[in-house]
Design brief:
Distance between the termini: 62 Å
Largest sheet: 2 strands, parallel
Number of domains: 1
Length: 141
């Protein structure tokens, strides 16, 4: 019977790894997600200080917009998304952090792309302001 099953299997398919007790989902850190969007592998740490500094600056701006905790949110290499509480969806926050960091850390050479990034940042800030006005973005803490 085993021979019949083996004959029907696709010889080019890669079998799924056997689950182990160690295979829990890895919590993504804010820094690793922003680095990935910037094209930096998460395990590369040469740029951590620069990227972290820019991300923290963007979080400070979010705080001034009324998004996130009452005190400005600060990350390090281990800060997970679950630490940042807001009504604004994670993908919007990530897009914002990426664009704000990109403009300082690795700005585009073409002025039209630079302006498109700035326009997108302004749009995100506008939309997040609407969310805050309609439901409150500050979380007690």
């Amino acid at each position: 019977m085993d021979d019949e099953l083996n004959q029907n299997e696709d010889p080019t398919s890669i079998p799924d790894p056997e689950p182990t007790s160690d295979s829990e989902p890895v919590a993504e850190t804010i820094l690793s997600d922003v680095k990935r969007m910037l094209g930096i592998q998460p395990e590369v740490d040469e740029f951590n200080i620069d990227v972290t500094s820019n991300v923290n600056g963007a979080f400070f701006t979010l705080n001034q917009l009324g998004i996130g905790p009452r005190t400005p949110f600060v990350i390090d290499a281990t800060t997970e998304w679950s630490s940042f509480e807001t009504i604004v969806p994670k993908n919007v926050i990530l897009d914002y952090l990426y664009l704000k960091t990109k403009l300082v850390f690795d700005p585009p050479i073409a002025s039209n792309i630079y302006e498109a990034y700035k326009d997108r940042i302004a749009e995100l800030e506008f939309r997040m302001n609407i969310m805050v006005d309609n439901g409150g973005g500050i979380v007690s803490g």
